[in-house]
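Incident log, support desk, overnight shift.

02:14 A customer reports that sequence design results differ from what the structure should imply. Their input is reproduced verbatim below. On-call engineer (initials T.W.) acknowledged and began investigating.
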């Protein structure tokens, strides 16, 4: 019979991950996990979604100022099953189905102590250089960032808690409620989850604008009250704003720019009523003619609410998962190419 230590060594040798080695060069190779600390859990990853930032790394080896300088494991939208727990972990057990929050703050600075850990200057984030991500058979993660899933929430839905958290945090910051009419600029994955979150927060009317008619049709099927196809030409802004106001019926109280370009932010700012709110969610450009990128912040304390919204059915993210792939070299390459092309692909998911 093989000893436990030998079992662990064999398991370690078998652990594989998708390594980004260069532009459009992903290879499944061995991944040696860090040791399990007393407050850590080891999670067998079962579902992982591809994010726009993963695609940027895949295509350009960078996102804004985050540059991939050495081989890195990619991925951060994930859920799985706990395989081992540290000696101090009491709230989780082996076999639990869990979703993972991928941002690891220092937990000691004033920002972390005050609860705004998402602003921590020492934040480490799965799949953001130089921190390895979670497109792997197994990962080790701090137990405080691992959340048990209810029986009626699937592992794929658990992995969707990460993008959903972006929309939930945006709606919290902007104060969406039953008295606010909302404009969503951008019908990509983040725009769509922000729309779903706005509806769950009680917004009585939500209108979505995008350049792509197919994505607008998806927004309409998911519950948008109205859609408008816009262009990338700033000269069309005046006419488009008139159409937005006509569709929404009254002034826009809150606008979410889920794209992050000069034109989209101009649309949000111009469409929103005096005294309303504009929330920058997408980061398409690292620099804009209006210096608002620094105002964008990562979510915080969202996983419990996301899981509850999924459990109760107030939000259904399943229609957003348009493509599924296995964890093989061939499928990893196909999945990232599919996600990079956009088009009909909304959320590409790995089933490990």
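02:41 Re-run completed on a clean worker. Output:
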């Amino acid at each position: 019979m093989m000893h436990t230590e030998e079992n662990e060594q064999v398991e370690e040798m078998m652990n594989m991950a998708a390594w980004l080695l260069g532009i459009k060069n992903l290879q499944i190779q061995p991944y040696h996990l860090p040791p399990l600390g007393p407050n850590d859990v080891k999670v067998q990853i079962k579902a992982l979604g591809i994010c726009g930032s993963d695609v940027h790394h895949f295509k350009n080896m960078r996102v804004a100022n985050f540059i991939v300088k050495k081989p890195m494991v990619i991925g951060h939208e994930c859920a799985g099953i706990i395989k081992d727990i540290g000696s101090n972990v009491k709230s989780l057990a082996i076999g639990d189905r869990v979703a993972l929050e991928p941002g690891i703050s220092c937990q000691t600075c004033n920002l972390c102590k005050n609860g705004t850990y998402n602003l921590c200057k020492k934040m480490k984030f799965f799949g953001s250089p130089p921190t390895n991500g979670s497109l792997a058979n197994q990962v080790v993660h701090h137990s405080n960032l691992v959340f048990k899933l209810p029986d009626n929430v699937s592992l794929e839905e658990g992995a969707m808690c990460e993008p959903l958290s972006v929309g939930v945090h945006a709606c919290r910051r902007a104060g969406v409620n039953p008295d606010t009419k909302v404009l969503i600029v951008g019908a990509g994955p983040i725009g769509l989850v922000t729309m779903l979150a706005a509806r769950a927060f009680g917004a009585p009317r939500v209108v979505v604008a995008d350049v792509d008619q197919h994505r607008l049709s998806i927004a309409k099927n998911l519950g948008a009250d109205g859609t408008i196809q816009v262009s990338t030409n700033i000269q069309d802004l005046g006419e488009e704003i008139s159409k937005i106001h006509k569709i929404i019926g009254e002034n826009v109280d809150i606008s979410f720019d889920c794209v992050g370009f000069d034109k989209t932010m101009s649309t949000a700012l111009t469409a929103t009523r005096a005294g309303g709110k504009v929330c920058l969610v997408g980061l398409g450009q690292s620099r804009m003619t209006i210096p608002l990128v620094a105002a964008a912040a990562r979510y915080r304390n969202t996983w419990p609410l996301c899981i509850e919204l999924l459990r109760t059915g107030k939000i259904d993210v399943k229609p957003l998962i348009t493509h599924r792939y296995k964890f093989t070299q061939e499928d990893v390459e196909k999945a990232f190419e599919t996600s990079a092309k956009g088009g009909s692909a909304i959320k590409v998911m790995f089933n490990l």
